[in-house]
Amino acid sequence: MLKIILPSIMLLPLTWLSNNKNMWINVTSYSFMISLLSAMLLWQNDMNILNFSLLFSTDSLSSPLIILTTWLLPLMLLASQNHMKKESELNKKFYISMLVTLQILLIMTFSANELILFYILFEATLIPTLIIITRWGNQTERLNAGLYFLFYTLIGSIPLLIALIYIQNLTGTLNFLLFPLTLMPFNQTWSNNILWLACMMAFLI
């Protein structure tokens, strides 16, 4: 996963060190190269999980999400150049930095093996998203939209955190790689249906 995360991190100094004339071209072309690099994740099957470490790996479910994330950044850069034309150069670089930070956090979220790390990274994506909505949103109600977005997501993710703590106490681990080695004492009861709903509520909201 470092083959994608490290080049994505390098987008930050590229943004701030590029001159104002070539900044959009440099960042967009480099992000397209990362998108092409991420396509290698497609060549794997269910049994061939790409284990990079105990914390990060990809499989056939997370790989398309990571590829989609890397392809969204250059498309967002292309779509927002005209919108950011009247902004100062500092605001343009800050805006691009927020998009790059969001991409890095999403890649780490989709490749996380530890569920509590997934939860932390998932919540961390709220910060650059909230800044982008409240600072560069088109509608005049963007401050209210950002506030609603923040509180709905945080409140919806509280049941997920409680469910993760319960699973940790029940199984002794939240690592996907260690789940097959644990005895999963989950019976088909109404309480487990509530547990499933708590895990899904953050994503449903």
From TrEMBL:
Keyword Protease: no
Membrane topology listed for this record: Multi-pass membrane protein
Spans through the membrane: 23-43, 49-73, 94-110, 116-133, 145-167, 187-204
Entry-linked Pfam families: Oxidored_q5_N, Proton_antipo_M
InterPro entries tied to this protein: NADH4_N (IPR000260), NADH_UbQ_OxRdtase (IPR003918), ND/Mrp_TM (IPR001750)
Recorded catalytic activity of this chain's protein: a ubiquinone + NADH + 5 H(+)(in) = a ubiquinol + NAD(+) + 4 H(+)(out)
Gene Ontology CC, one term: mitochondrial membrane
GO molecular function terms attached to this record: NADH dehydrogenase (ubiquinone) activity; NADH dehydrogenase activity; ubiquinone binding
EC supergroup of this enzyme: translocase
Family: Belongs to the complex I subunit 4 family.
Name of the protein in its database record: NADH-ubiquinone oxidoreductase chain 4
Gene name, Swiss-Prot/TrEMBL: ND4
